[in-house]
């Protein structure tokens, strides 16, 4: 069979070849050009006809197979089976409950919906990844590869800790390499911090709304989150003090720089007051700064930890948002007394990280490539933020409110009433736009329906299209609602 | 300064250049050829004079600096400071308590003791790593790198799960790719299993002695281990049944193939009986098979899971012992009902693994390189096992007993009395040989002093030297003991 001419492979595109091939075959199946039962070429034939490696062809088929598009039988070949319709995937995505871990786990599935505009995930745009530059840093480790394939220190690669110490210093945080604990992403950092500071049943104060991944971590370890609301300057200290006095939380989790899901920052005055309040009650603050270097204003944002004269702040950061999440590299700078315990817990969780990727990241930092990368991508992300705000202004019906993100990837939308929101997540997916429902970020409902929209991984055009579709859905609902109410009026 | 002629760099050796440079400089410092205060060349000068890259020179200095051998001051240069004597490192290694996590954390420190014969860690020999072959598998991912730097599925790379499913099938375990959960090494696998099955305060039955890392994991999560002794055929079922009836353990942890620390296997009859007992009490068995493919007999060892008709076995394996631990890749095959919960817990621990290394491992497996690697290394490890047994036979004083490892890297030594053991760990380090004290593998002392000796990462010569030194120490102690007792006799 020859169907290679149906596939358009663009070697200049950021997307990998195997994924391009898989996507194009999916489109052909969806369009009915490759009906169920069609035999696809062998891996060898496909590789030959497209002039790609067999590994690439195999990867494309692997992706199609795991997505349920094709079926391979040894000795017979690969056949198109009934294509999963978007509706099937949406049904799978909906599941029973939109819990934080289900929403996070849906990331892969949502990526399989054809034609979707996804504003659902707070992730950087792969098209902006400095893949080649990082690959050079990886290649530079070839001579040390044997050492980097051995067991390594649970605290992380020494050279990476040196580089992180330098970068932290530039942001005002004085941390020796020995005071840095490298983790598997910010998630492991937050898991280790939680295990170190809070036992089952203990209270933890969190901003409300808050990063849903943290709620999943706290839930897994049996810690109980207490919400502290935000105002325009950040976490409300009167409410925090009340929580401290009533519940003695083991720590406050906060994201002063470009909070997830709101995208907003904490004012300078609020930071000062928060540190003073924490000092008064000896409250540990866990600062999540994963968005701190993604700022769209004129001046870089300073971490809270840079002003932590009392050593009360546990600082958490990662390479996931500023560089690439697949590296799985995060780090913690903790007060001295906690460090040994954290290393011990990290050992119990996964022994140590992968030294090769840590060393490559060290090399990348050493060569100044992260700074160059940030200078290159910040204008793009700023443009997308602006596109989102403009699209919201244009498309949202009266009464809908939203935050103005100063950094990061997130924007928080509040609908004026519940009627507008009924089944919105599901219907939006059916209309080709994904967001994250706000309930996932709240410990208890606050009487409003919220949406988190993320603008990091979509082009300005896709953002406009996605927001316009959402706006249409909401306007329809407003109309339906008025019709509904009209019917409820007495017929006099 | 020119001291490049002091350093002998061998580009053909398995050890990386930077480590060779660092080791040689350490030797020069130890020998007094580079006294404290000596200014070392700049990174640029060193790289030039040795014809290595600046990154390599920088790495060498990084290693020296973190080991406390040199000090770098910006603008001034790098200077030799007082060299840490072996005794300083040994003091640091000894610490206060030889807890499992401290013993594991000492791995890096022990590696800095000059001239040490280490029989302390159950690790494969880096000199036998298939570094170049694996590097090819890594290079083959260049075109897909952007995709592999994104967030990935918590369950692990689909292509790796396909390859693992094939390999498991060859070992008698029928597991679909969807039933495999990829983890960060066996440690994360065991942590996820523990979190899934046991709550704080729950009992867990473990072989006695048992892998010390498991005890650290159980301790971190507040689960309580109950020891079940081993006999020559494996875990004793009469004792296990008693533990089941009395304590209702959440699971039994067992390593039927080449147990750590004893190196012994479970007999076929015992396996059948264990599965029958587990079925009777519906006891979950957690099988750790990380050494299962490292067998020194004529026939490959079968996993317990291959005979698990009742779906009671949670199977854990990893690339760490059979290939390279720095990949940080492990995997779980669990009964269906546990799978979702395990994926959710893995998400709370570190979200997902590094897709690049997973995909490279998939490629390595797909190309049949793991089988080739095992065929190549098994004769080496068998030779080392034989060397160890021979050396023990030759060097150990009367009354010392040891196991005969049938696979893996571990051998378990039992001393005839306590007197012989007093301060042995410390003194052995001072005499240039490291082992792991047996107490770390026991829940409660069994009245004997034990040592774990590992033969995987040492040459037959080093094994002979290490065991001979140990034998001398033990023989001296026997003499001292008799002298001591003699003095205690009444002088009549």
Task: Tell me what the structure shows.
Two copies of one chain form a homodimer. In chain A, helix 10 (185-197) packs across helix 11 and helix 16 (369-395) runs parallel beside helix 18 (460-488). The N and C termini of chain A lie far apart (71 Å). With 492 residues, chain A is of the alpha/beta class. The first copy, chain A, has 18 helices and 17 strands.
Throw out a few tags for this protein.
homodimer; 492 residues; alpha/beta; 8-stranded mixed beta sheet; 4-stranded antiparallel beta sheet; 18 helices; globular
Task: Provide the gyration radius of chain A in Å.
Answer: 24 Å
The residue ranges of chain A in which pLDDT falls below 50 over 5 or more consecutive positions are 482-492
Strands side by side in the biggest sheet of chain A: 5-12-11-10-9-6-7-8
- Bulk shape of chain A: globular
The percentage helix of chain A is 40-55%
Distance between the termini of chain A: 71 Å
Largest sheet of chain A: 8 strands, mixed
Structural class of chain A: alpha/beta
Average pLDDT value of chain A? 90
Care to count the β-strands of chain A? 17
Largest interface: A-B, 81 and 81 residues
